[in-house]
Amino acid sequence: HLQLVEPGGGLVQPGGSLRLSCTTSGFSMEDYAISWFRRAPGKELEGVICKGRQDDSTYSAESVKGRFTISRDSVLNTVYMQMNNLKPEDTAVYYCAASNRITDAQAMGVISLVSGWYDVWGQGTQVTVSS
User: Mind listing the pLDDT tens digit for each residue in 15-35?
Assistant: First the structure.
């Protein structure tokens, strides 16, 4: 049974930082691109950032560029999303997702943030940015 486990999330003040983690269960992430999506209240699901299989295959949405980064630990089968300089508009439920259909080239472009490519999803974790 393929699963993604996302502990973490929480309440943080504007300008603060938070790190989310996503760990695979039942499969190795070596063959998968891992991305984060988010759904803000009343809004559609939005792709945030992607990490392909290769270290340099990364893509992020304009709304988080320069503030969010993504990294992976293949030994722990875990992907981390570091979120800095958080803003109230970053408030959302965050989901990690895995795809073995996205190529490394695609992982460096906007297609990596299209939810339809992803087959395995985490349960979601709430991030609230508020003073």
Answer: 999 999 999 999 888 889 999
SS3 content of the chain, % helix, strand, coil (to 5): 10, 45, 45
Tell me which residue has tokens 């490519």: 117
Residue 41 C-beta-side C-alpha neighbours within 13 Å: 7
Query: How far is Cα 13 from Cα 131, in angstroms, rounded to an integer?
Result: 5
Question: Could you read off the pLDDT of 49-85 as tens digits, one per residue?
Answer: 999 988 788 999 999 999 999 999 989 999 999 999 9
- What is the DSSP track for 22-79? EEEESS-GGG-EEEEEEE-TTS-EEEEEEE-SSTT-EEE-TTTTTTEEEEEETTTTEE
